Amino acid sequence: MSAVVIVGAGPAGIRAAQTLVEHGVHPVLIDEASQGGGQIYRRQPANFTRPARQLYGFEARKASALHQTLDALAGQIDYRPGTLVWNAEHGALDTLRDGHAAHLPYQRLIIATGATDRVLPVPGWTLPGVYTLGAAQIALKHQGCAIGERVLFCGSGPLLYLVAYQYAKAGAKVLGVLDSAPFSAQCRALPELLEQPATLGKGLYYRAWLSAHGVPVHQGATLERIEGGQQVQRAVWRKGDQLHDTECDALAFAHALRSETQLADLLGCAFEWSTLNRAWLPRRDQAGRSSEHDVYLAGDGAGIMGADAAEMAGERAALALLQDLGQTVDPQRCRTLEKRLTRIGRFREGLEAAFPFPEHWAEQAPDDLVVCRCEEISVGELRAVVGEGHWEINRAKAHCRVGMGRCQGRMCGAAAAEIIAHCSGKALHEVGRLRAQAPIKPLPFGVEHDA
Amino acid sequence: MALFKRLAEHQRPVLDFTLDGEPACGLLGDTLLTAILTSGAHLRGSDFSAEPRAGFCLMGACQDCWVRLGDGRRVRACATALETGQQVLREPGRRP
Ligand SMILES: Cc1cc2nc3c(=O)[nH]c(=O)nc-3n(C[C@H](O)[C@H](O)[C@H](O)COP(=O)(O)OP(=O)(O)OC[C@H]3O[C@@H](n4cnc5c(N)ncnc54)[C@H](O)[C@@H]3O)c2cc1C
Ligand code: FES
Predict the structure, then answer these.
(1) Is A293 exposed, middle or buried, given 0-12, 13-18 or 19+ CB atoms closer than 10 A?
(2) What is the ipTM of this complex?
(3) Which CATH class is domain B14-87?
(4) CB under 6 Å to ligand 2: residues?
């Protein structure tokens, strides 16, 4: 029987695996991606030749260190890339690899499933040429491609400036950056941001670099709609009471990130409301223990804290697991990790203040805006259902299919909750959270079951 | 018309495949999504309105990039590597 299983081979999962091995425990490490590294340190295909410096910029050293750690664990862990965990029940996972389904029992589980972009739709967002900020970065990092010839970057959050900078540096034509956050918010957030001067410095550097290279940066600028026939042709945006339009053939947008929490949900972990993340998140103690005695949580999948925190949280969760198995671990190391995580937590609050959530989005969303791109449910349809009294998000889902499609609400869930809350006059947390359902990602037909 | 633009890693072996029965080519290391969108502008028609879609998240989350292969399998174009000789079909989606 496989005693310890880790889901997710990003910074959190890899550091957890390393820590376990250092203490003589040899886990199974599963990731859906064909190469380890997670989102930020995603690797390029083996026959690509760009050096780490070009792919990861300032983070090149950290990326290489993490990749080397994973490679050095070969033979000491049961690493299963290309493997999706699509279901979880007490004590066991269901996995899928190359069309083969398998059942994997565990004694202890570390969930390190990371995050995806948080999306607030605008009219035209389903047009070819419109991508999330994360997608734009993956196209470049993993495939050496830009999402189009002339690209506009919109939304908010740290990825906005980073990806625009990476594109411009790689030779793409960046038409501009539209940041929905006003400059004043960023000034007010300075005290918390100074908790992590190096990270703050990088953020400022990307901005300054863009300006120095003639890329227009607009703050307090909101994307209103995207226009085009068969693909993107134009973006219409607002700054103050002025409407502007920019001709472009690709556009990337998002408002920060959202955690992948489905496995914790299926396993019955208790959730609590996070005002900072505007989301229900699995509850964890400082060490990463969930409400379930055999389930641990680490990294962005348990709340957005970034890559450095993910590495620390992965190590801390593994140490907690070892303690619970009766092993002696270095208490000083545990305290150091917790202290550092607390400090990053304060920085994270600063980031939230610097890139505040666009509170008026729900109010301004037009009725004919498609909120759910899988089932093509409009904001108006959702509002009608709320008007009939269905303000709990799973009830609304049952009545109009929002969040019921193939993405299981990954793309529309956050937006749907905002619409329901605004329309019903409830607080966002009262609306509840979309319950996870297995399979958490669609399975192809003709899956074979291994014994 | 192509959607994606290659910025780097041009020196790779060319792989031939077919897209909706027409000859097409990509490069070794491309995902199906990259191979299709560097020559065309969509991956599928949406299930309810047949509007063109070209993926959205590139990380296996949105499920808006499914294409069909010659052997009948349906795969996510963003998470599937291009192989030589693949027959890729873009599904038109349902018209309302
Ligand atoms: C697209 C994207 C780009 C980003 N780029 C940056 C950046 O440049 N700089 C920065 O500071 N931060 C970036 N971030 C933030 C980044 O997510 C974190 O900083 C960091 O990667 C978190 O590490 P993690 O280990 O928690 O999760 P991740 O790195 O996200 O790793 C989670 C892993 O779990 C796997 N997984 C999830 N669910 C399953 C499942 N059901 N079955 C099997 N495997 C599963 C995923 O494939 C993934 O590899 C980015 C985030 C995203 C989404
Ligand atoms: S583009 Fe989102 S799943 Fe492939």
Answers:
(1) exposed
(2) 0.98
(3) alpha beta
(4) B 55-58, 60-65, 76, 78
